Amino acid sequence: MSRIASIETFRVPPRWIFVRVTTDDGLTGWGEAIIPKRARAVVAAIEDMAANLKGVDVSRIEDIAQRLRRGAFFRHGPILATAAAGIEQALWDIKGQRAGMPVYEFLGGAVRDHVRAYAWIGGDSPNDIVEHARKRMEEGFTAVKMNATPALGHIGQRNLIDAAAARMGALRDAFGNKLDIALDLHGRVHRAALKPLLAELEQFHPMWIEEATTPENEETLKMLASAARSIPVATGERLSSRWEFKRVLDTGAIDIIQPDVSITGLFELEKIARMAEVYDVAVAPHCPNGPISLAASLQVGFCCPNIVIQEQSLGLHYHAGFAGLPKADLLDYLKDTKPLTTADGVFAINDAAGLGIVLDEEGIVAKQQDWRLPDADWTHPDGTYAEW
After folding, report:
1. Any stretches that span the bilayer, and where are they (predicted)?
2. I want to staple 29 with a disulfide (CB 3.0 to 4.6 A). Which of 94, 101, 311, 372 is the partner?
3. Catalytic site residue 76?
4. Whole-number Cα distances in Å, 153 to 162, 184, 194, 387
5. Given pLDDT bands bounded at 50, 70 and 90, which one contains residue 125?
């Protein structure tokens, strides 16, 4: 029986929290936690959890996950969820390595040969956004995502709605329907502003609108089904469990859910995807994160038929010296970049053991920093705080 000997955390640029679990017989597995603006709290939570896991049988992944989620009287919340998820991913990595098998083989086996991916694009003007999208298409991507709009107030600000439509219109004028375009609203848009915004965007046939409202606004979520009309509605990146996703799915307003493996954990992501299949809802895992999160997401993507596309963060603007931290990108901490490199806009399946990647452990140790990211400072014109 192999037991947990140590659990360590490494905060590395650009804003990632890696978790390393080592067993008493020398195996090492890696996971990834998120919430960079509360990184120190996440690390503290992992350290608290680690103190209770030393000597525990490393193979009892579900039992460990249950204990991490339910072991304290005050449960849930994103800090505890991501701390548990980072540890749990590493345990799956170890299980796969010990068996010499990829994790997806433990989850029913592969259902596809590749997973489609999309890339982020950005730019302040329509011309900028078109050029960025053109570059992504040259890289082989057939789908992209961009932020749709800055923060909108409850009423007015028609100029911002017109600007959002102009950026989307420029992409359609340049590429027609050859490019699928998702729009991330980031919870920035209030209910009253959603109606005119969606009315303008519908003509451009977005692949989906993402997180049109924050998770606590369930009544607005229910309204979206009619307001979005023909636009598919996506949400879920801030939710951490089947129970939270069930409430969202039961509204009947959602077409695509977007669980993040570094909030849910790997096995919970698989369970959420299977549950969504009952509702005929697609899954597009959220992952603007680092390589371990992406590798863990793909293990689930290879074995769940309703996972339709995977987010990935190569070239994401957050990686370019965010908040003064050194630059780093998705592939920088890998010894072999091939498993997480797309060809023709897809990730090909591979049979490497565990999460399917080999990390540059010496590089991770050398580059770790005690960084802290400032809170967002977004306000409306009148000075009131805005969703960012």
Report:
1. none
2. 94
3. no
4. 14, 17, 10, 10
5. low
